[in-house]
Design goal:
The chain is α+β, with helices and mostly antiparallel strands and 378 residues long. The protein folds into two domains: 9-70 and 327-376, Hypothetical Oxidoreductase Yiak, Chain: A, domain 1, CATH 1.10.1530.10; 79-293, 2-Layer Sandwich (Ribosomal Protein S8, Chain: A, domain 1). It has helices spanning 3-7, 14-27, 32-47, 58-67, 95-113, 130-138, 193-200, 223-226, 249-266, 299-312, 327-339, 345-357, 364-367, and strands at residues 9-12, 77-82, 85-93, 115-123, 142-150, 169-174, 182-187, 211-212, 218-219, 243-244, 280-288, 341-344. Helix 5 (95-113) links the parallel strand 3 and strand 4. Helix 2 runs antiparallel to helix 3 and helix 5 runs parallel beside helix 6 (130-138). Bound molecules: nicotinamide-adenine-dinucleotide. Residues 50, 53, 125-130, 147, 149, 167, 169, 183-187, 192, 195, 281, 323, 325-326, 328-329 line the site of nicotinamide-adenine-dinucleotide.
Amino acid sequence: MTDAGVAESILTDPEGLTKLIGEVLHADGCSTEEADCVADHLVEASLCGHDSHGVIRLPRYHSWLGTGQIKARQPLRLISSLGSARQFDGGNGLGQWLARAATAQGVALARKEGIGVILLRRAGHIGRVGAYAEQAAEAGCVSLIFVNVGGSRLVAPFGSAQRAGSTAPVTIGVPNAEGDDFILDFATSKVAEGKALLAARGGIDLPDDALMGADGRPTDDPLELYGASLQERLPDPRAGKGALRPFGDHKGSGLMLACELLGGALTGNGTNGPTDHEFGNGMLAVFLEPSRFDDLGMFDGEVASFIDFVRSRTPAQGSDLVLIPGDKERRTRAQRIVRGLPVPRPVLTAILRIARELNLDWDEERLMKRGVAMTGKD
Ligand code: NAD
């Protein structure tokens, strides 16, 4: 976030915020376990620095639960079972709850058989995909995860001025038995949609080629994505005439298209091709138990020494430290746990308004991190 964005943030107590979000989702019809799981996920995403996938999402989830776009209490429905692969339908339930349960099954299969493959379709928004790689790494498993966002045609593939894909995240996790896990987790668009929304609200600046204008020229203007809906309370990224752009030219664009095919076509979630599908995440996840493939007994030592080696390289000009994927999130989390979780005032106001509408007894005072100033830098 820019200083301008952070200056307007309230430093909140993550535990209080988790409780409040859990109560809102419970009042919206979710089971206690489901509500607590999603609340934990949103606060964790914010703690890790991925504000675009954190507590800022609650007003949208609340609205979607109201309109039936996502549904509370949906079970993870088994569609097919083949060897150590399982295919599930999420019935448009709460994505984090479904993806967590599906990951648990994939990891259990990997621990039993060496490999577990999960195909999940029609899950509501599954949020920060890195959370599932962390879940697998905690159980000692490698993960390869390809996700598409059905019903969310936002990204113009390389060479195109028109949308034909989603922000489709790719996530790879490798457990490190002797230290920090490797958790690579990113949207294949140059910026995640939530970051375009933050930019539209003045919270951050976007790279000047993050979007594609309707005229086929790169731009940093979020209006190209949201169009006139930017003025509404819940702007719609499908309303604009421009698009987000993929990262890494033809290579990132190719990964995005692969996610559409694997997370969209293979799972049955549907791609962002010519047919319009309901909004929802599709996820293909492969989990591996490394010790089952480690006849030389080298995996743990090799992972740990490689990670140490990478971190020990001389920083390039303009960078203080060489980090591995996952470090930035761990560092931000450690800092925010101590200093408080910064939440932009308009987001906190929106969450408290929803709580009031649901007759829940919360106010700003009760959410503030004790022992720190009310507003501050992150
Ligand atoms: P990002 O651009 O911040 O990249 C994050 C990745 O880069 C992480 O693995 C991080 O550890 C690594 N990284 C960051 N700085 C680094 C450095 N200096 N050195 C080495 N590695 C570094 O992420 P993003 O593209 O903005 O995505 C944000 C989140 O949005 C992700 O968690 C993603 O899963 C989520 N997302 C979800 C959906 C969905 O539909 N559920 C869609 C798109 C994105």
